[in-house]
Amino acid sequence: MKLTIVGSGDAFGSGGRSNTCFWLETARGTLAVDFGASALPALKALALDPNRIDAVVLSHLHGDHFGGLPFLLLDAQFLSRRERPLLIAGPPGTRARLDALMDVFFPRSTGSKWKFAWSVQEIAPGVADAVLGHAITTAEVVHQSGAPSTALRLSDGDRVFAYSGDTEWTEALLPIARGADLFICECYAHAGKLTGHMSWEILKERLGDLGAKRTMLTHMNPTMLARLDEVRAGGVLLAEDGRKLEF
Q: Residue 121: which residues within 8 A CB-CB, separation 6 or more?
């Protein structure tokens, strides 16, 4: 798998980082994992063609993780002239929330006659499923978003990519991360017990339990961004917009 980090920021763009979006090239296609509000311009800044995306896989339904989808769909409709189908896969409730988002941002857009086919697949937490030939398992985590917030584990049959989504510490992360070639974990703050988010103070004590081959931190606020040397000293990778990694 080849990863390009399109956006690694928190909801507020701390450190000038874009909202969450991971570009993942696998043996079976090209996926975007999450598609935050700033994802489309961030893709274009990295010269990544959005028409190459076969599927967008969503961890949860907050604007900094799925709010860029109306722009992706309308760019495909009116500017980039997409012809290939696009799949959007996410937790239960994705279709209704996406329709509501489209109508708020661009009224009556859900009634458009689309020039390309797109569809929504809803994935139940804890139930093995597949996204365009990729095996996927999700687990509900601890983060309020009006629908199940999930961590996810994706395999193309050769490599395994895992991602925490947004969550405070939960044992549900262990089977998602175990044995993964890369586990990307949110680490919002440096210290403290946070509602719905992780801190480095808590995560560093559980890194050995995760059992991933490599772990990378993302979604960091200013208190974390100010202490990155401490994380590097622990041998943990750090997400950064534009960073590329092959695993």
A: 87, 88, 89, 90, 129, 131
Say whether pTM exceeds 0.85: yes
- From 59, 57, 24, select the one nearest 147 (Cα to Cα): 59
Whether the CB-CB separation of 94 and 125 falls below 8 Å is answered with: no
User: How many angstroms separate the CA atoms of 200 and 68, rounded?
Assistant: 28
Structural domains of the chain in order of their starting residue, each with its CATH number = 2-239 (3.60.15.10)
Residue with tokens 């590097």: 232
- pLDDT tens per residue across span 214-230: 999 999 999 999 999 99
* CA 104 remoteness from chain centre: 23
Task: List the one residue out of 19, 52, 16 whose CA is nearest residue 218.
Answer: 19
Do 80 and 52 touch, CB atoms closer than 8 A? no
Q: State whether the Cα torsion 205-173-37-182 is positive or negative.
A: positive
Separation of CA 187 from chain center: 14
